[in-house]
Amino acid sequence: MSAHPSRIPATPRAELDRAVAALAAGKARWANVTARQHVELLGRLSERFAEVADRWVDACLEAEGIPPAHPMAGEEWLAGPYLVLRNLRLLAASLADVAAGQRPRLPGPVTHRPGGQAAAQVFPASLYDRLFFPGVTAEVWLEAGVTPENLGETQAVPYFEGAEPGLCLVLGAGNVSSIGPMDALYKLFAERKVVLFKAHPVNDYLGPLLAEAFGPLIEEDALRVVYGGAEEGEYLTRHPEVDEIHITGSDKTVEAIVFGAGEQGAQRKAERRPLLAKAISSELGNVSPVLIVPGPWSRRDLVYQAENLVSMLANNAGFNCNAARVLITSRAWPQRQELLEEIRRQLRSIPTRLPYYPGARERWQRFVDAHPQAETFGDTRFDRLPWTLIPNLDAEREDEICFTTEAFAPVFAEVPLPGQSAAEFLAGAVEFANQRLWGTLNATLVVHPATLREESAERAFEQALADLEYGTVTVNHWAAVGYGLVVTPWGAYPGSDLYDIQSGEGFVHNSYLFSRIEKSVVYSPFRAFPKPPWFVSHKTSRQLGRALTFFEKDPSATRLPGIFRLALAG
Predict the structure, then answer these.
(1) pLDDT digits (tens, 9 = 90+) for 221-241
(2) Residues 6+ apart with CB under 8 A from 381
């Protein structure tokens, strides 16, 4: 079994038209709903999403073939209702500031970067943030021309300068259950658009639960949930009452929407003759690099970082746009082979998963067929796919599929580059990531603190952060943390267009409501304690994920002892 069929029949065309008509009739009123009214609505949504949370997670576990006792069962809490409830809380906090007549208040300083660029510290914002994410800080770097002095003018612009009424079609993602609802929340509350949400056929079983949770918005004629596949999607994208589109998915899907499918579509793209003139925002995946900076790692460091790296692959069976795809190492680093061997050892111990996402087995086979050196790990009975490592790629090979194509399967690769020192390695690794790997969504650097005590390495590290052309850059933690903090904008590095879309256009999450964003940068300790709950060996991730979810709904110090017990037991 490689995919679950759609469980819910496609919405009939007449019903699609009625949904669009109701939203179109309500879009002008929604664009003028006050921030204070939005805060009240967000509180009601929080209650509703908490009510469906247990059923939501159970449905995902069943559909993806994850037994409740599976070591990674907790990921459905962390990547689902936890993030949506966090999103609701943070949006409400920002809009409470707007309701009071001010821009969303930032928790940290706004500093000048070289050239005058503004960088706003957005995390941590509270004692709870410091307790749950010890040692983690995050910044939002703004585009050229945004300075610390005028940064506030770029926040919550649709509330202070007025919003153009609009109806946005949100084409939900099928892999991570929080993506679709969070995309909808951004369009609704950050951009003040009404939303037609089309559930993805892979996880449309969540549609009724989302409709229940979004009930207050449905009552306001601000949102509708509909169902269907490519045919319904095409009809809605071309519907005259749909003003704009947001999609999390494939660059090929966006090209088909804009230019049409097949050879005719390719011809229109080449001739720059789009079929569709509507605004499209999108998040379209990535060949996500992990730059592993050479340094003096201990045995404990190697074991910890190997789990850090395999967790970046194994989470959600490898069906993540931010999954580690290419590990960039230094060929001269004496511990390179020791790290790879520890990765192999840990991959052998991880239970394999059902390849529930359509086409996974075929994609996996393409990568394995192209690489005789591919190494597979784990039990492949019961239609499971093995974890797969493709080591020692040739960095000069122009047609390397691992560099040009996102696997979206349990596959990652390793490519060694020259560089005796950290500074030499980083210069080459950043250029390689920017120039040779497809996509601009997210990148991770793993660097030992002792390495950064060298002046040349520290300078090269700071330059690498500035030069990496990715919408999210994380240090030591998996780049998915940039997705999960919610305060940090999530999206591709600016500069792509419909003729070379790469990882897409625009940002979501972004709970401080910035515009003119360049990237998010997240700094984390080299070894975190307690163990991060997304690590594959975490023993209490399901219980901890649920506890954190309900904490986000109702933050309270009385919940902390139970959360800490679960975190330390992991």
Answers:
(1) 999 999 999 999 999 999 999
(2) none
Q: What Rg, from alpha-carbon coordinates, does the chain have?
A: 23
Return the sign of the alpha-carbon dihedral for residues 434, 451, 488, 197.
positive
Q: Does pTM top 0.70 for this prediction?
A: yes
What does residue 72 show for φ and ψ, rounded to 5 degrees?
A: -105, 20
* pLDDT exceeds 70 at position 2: no
* Complete DSSP assignment for 491-557: EPPTT-BTTB-TT-S-EEE-TT-BSSEEEEEEE--SS-SSPPTTSTT-SSHHHHHHHHHHHHHS--G
* Identity of the residue numbered 108: G
Q: Are 140 and 111 in contact (CB under 8 A)?
A: no
Query: pLDDT by residue (tens digit) across 422-460?
Result: 999 999 999 999 999 999 999 999 999 999 999 999 999
In whole angstroms, how far apart are CA 370 and each of 172, 199, 357, 379, 402?
Answer: 32, 34, 21, 22, 9
**Do 291 and 328 meet the contact criterion of CB atoms below 8 Å apart?**
yes
In this structure, the dihedral spanned by the alpha carbons of residues 77, 352, 474 and 129, taken in order and rounded to 10 degrees, is 30
Q: By three-state DSSP, how is residue 69 classified?
A: coil
DSSP for 194-214, written as a single string: EEEEE--GGGGGGHHHHHHHT
Give the helix/strand (H/E) hosting 58: helix 35-63
Between CA 428 and CA 130 the distance in angstroms is 34
Which residues are CB-contacts of 403 (< 8 A; sequence separation ≥ 6)?
A: 287, 326, 393, 397, 436, 437, 438
485 touches 522 (CB < 8 A): yes
Give the other-Cβ count within 10 Å of 262's Cβ: 9
Q: What is the 3-state secondary structure (H, E, C) of 320-352?
A: CCCCEEEEEEECCCCCHHHHHHHHHHHHHHCCC
Q: Look at residue 220 and give its three-state secondary structure.
A: coil
